[in-house]
Amino acid sequence: MRFTLNGVATNVDAHPMSRLLDVVREECQLTGTKEGCGEGECGACTVLVDGDPVCSCLVPLAQVEGAEVVTIEGLGDDHPLQHAFMNEVGAQCGICTPGMIMAALSLDPDASIDDIKVALSGNLCRCTGYSAIYRAIMKARRQ
Amino acid sequence: MAAVGNSVPRKDGIGKATGRAVYADDIVMPGMLHGRTIRSTIPHGRIRSVNVVGDVPGLIVVDHYDIPGRNVVDLIEQDQPFLVERDVRHLAEPILLLAHEDRDVLNAVRVEIDYEELEPVFDPERSQGILKAIDIVKGDVETALADADFIVEGTYRTGHQEHVYIEPNVVVAMPEKDGIAVFGSLQCPFYVLKALKSLLGASAHIRVVQTETGGGFGGKEEYPSMIAGHATLLALKSGRPVKILYDRVEDMIATTKRHPSIVRHRTGVMRDGRIVAMDVGVLLDGGAYSTLSPVVLSRGCIHAAGAYRCDNTRIRGRAVATNTPPNGAFRGFGAPQTEFAVEVHIERIAEELGMDPVSLRELNALRPGDTTATGQVMGTDCSAHIVLEEAVRRTDFRAKREQYRGTNRSIGLALFFHGAGFTGSGERHLNSKARIDLTERGVRIAVGSTEIGQGTRTMHAQIVADALAIPYEDVEVAQPDTTVVADSGPTVASRTCMVVGKILEQCAMEMKERLGGMSPSDYHAKHGGFSVLRKYEPPGWIEWDDHTYRRDAYATYAWGCDVVEIEMDPDTLEVRPVKVTAVQEFGRPIHPALARGQIEGGTAQGLGYALLEHVVMRNGGMANAQLTNYIIPTTLDTPELDIVMLENPYAGGPFGAKGLGELPVDGPAPAVVNAIRHFGIDLREIPAIPEHLVTCASR
Prior knowledge:
The complex is a heterodimer. Chain A has five helices and five strands; from the N terminus they run ββαβββαααα. Chain A has helices at 20-27, 80-87, 97-105, 113-119, 131-142, and strands at 2-5, 8-11, 46-49, 52-55, 68-70. Chain B contains 19 helices and 28 strands. Chain B folds into three domains: 13-21 and 432-535, 2-Layer Sandwich (Aldehyde Oxidoreductase, domain 4), CATH 3.30.365; 31-119 and 164-254, Aldehyde Oxidoreductase, domain 4; 261-424 and 549-697, Aldehyde Oxidoreductase, domain 4, CATH 3.30.365.10. Helices cover 28% and strands 25% of the residues of chain B. In chain B, strand 21 (544-545) and strand 22 form a beta hairpin. Chain B is α+β, with helices and mostly antiparallel strands.
């Protein structure tokens, strides 16, 4: 199965019904994408497929044929959102953080706090009460 | 610049923001097998036979006969087996272990178990099995009740709560020369070590390493010992590394939860509002084995009279056994249950007296010089009035309460406290140690206290940096590995900053003296490295009697007052929190942003406990063991959180800090239910879901 992963043409020999999450973590050894529930409720496994945030635990590999897939590793380590999550303590235990950042990437630059809440409503965080995550996103957009 | 008091960058921030941090499920080892746990499908009975169906090449099978040492998870009591031998005491109890290199093959294996079923006990009020009994007596309750102007009685109930750390449990065990190494998502590496020593025999060479841990909240305090034991048995039998990863359903069905509670209050009150007698009965459902129930009950009972002064108090606590999966540690550790009861009860007393609930609390809240239920004399570190006044002032509570009357909006508050560190003589028995090492680059902290999101590494490094007067960046923190670090005790009980941080501060002060004004790197270049190891010295004035439960239950307490504004849909009775104001005093924040994060996150967990989180038990097991229908707060369920951090430095903590981690969970549930009461709904249990509210509303 051919697709683009973090800008690199990739060809994976796996069952077409394999979960994209497993392909990314195991075949491609990119373990920044996390599994929290396996049923699309927690959002820890969020990646971008052709720019849209999706739960990679619900996406079969066949569905990304020819698509652009971006994981947290695709951001490198100098993205404004990453700095903001570090500085505003938007990450506590950190297990939801990659998915949270991937979901936040799709926000409009002028999104309101209510827009942010809706955009992140599929990403569960049990540590922060979300406030520090909002602060991080707001700060990243001011930069 | 001083590190303490400033929100310096988290030590683990970059790894977490880039996805590079290594969690246990990210570990892959050559030849690694996947492990699977076969569990009981009945809540109570005896096993007649166990049969693995068919012949699966490469399958490793482990049962209790494979255990070289003792088949008990060594914790407080030695009652819980790693693997059932004959008697099944709860649903989802581990019976057999399987491992295979192919996950699909492993998951397809069928195991048939034949049982003789026995009658289960699910109702704690009908249980005959007492796991722990505690009686606290102060003054003469019966006489004081007889002399009181009014007696107010009530029964309050709380349900299970599931931790929902976003990373499910996972452990990897790897055979090492003459022993075993275990890597896992866990809070207490030395608890796991103790349990594995019992499993394998004292002479076994065991190394326990904590990997990055995706949340704990108490849920990874004791249960990882069980999983580590299972992975170890499979690894030793196969001679290969074995990973056991629970999926969400297994994690929710099989692992511990917050103890359900039934708390009864009988309170004597004078016409002017003075509380003269408190008679409290605390019943906790411990589940099938003791685990930590004795100490959860202990903390629950000590907090059961609330943040109030009363000369005549009797608290009778019982933790009992039922045929349900064992309940265990969960942030707050018994106090959220008992403080829920007392704070809703206080609200009812105010109602009965026709008194303003703030005034009733002002009249009775603890002040310096007052004594608690155990007879502990409050010092100047008692801030009950300070947090109450600030919360009432900041929210304009009294005016809003009047203003909202008759609308679908309401406001309620709760006053609460939380003892920091192990209860009573616990810290003395723990005898925790901490160590710092002088290295080429600076100083390395070597303690078993784990980073589980709360910021252990960061705030320990801040404390050591400032005590040594060196840059924060020059302090590194060793990964907890039981063969490398000092046993600083478990990462629980709001003790990691206050207790372990204090030992580290003393280590650093001793090291500073030995450096004689040289920088660590200069000293190292000239004289080589050295280490400083110190033990915890509890404050000398602490007196505690384990038998009578008298005197100083905790070295200090943190204090909080939460004000919750809610809206209720008059048709569906759904309650939505609109705003929470959390005023909390915990000595002094070492790292203000981390401290704020503890309060915000704990408050959100408390709101979930109050309004959403409903564990449905059916035939002794969790029937809604999925995130689809066990609901924790999302962004849309979490209201605006106004956090106020008040300072009242505590001399026994590092840089004046008290414990904070658990305090924020104690307040939201009673504050929510007290707001609902203001609608005229006599609710006495949580979660406050419409299904419960409708029965109260129609009463």
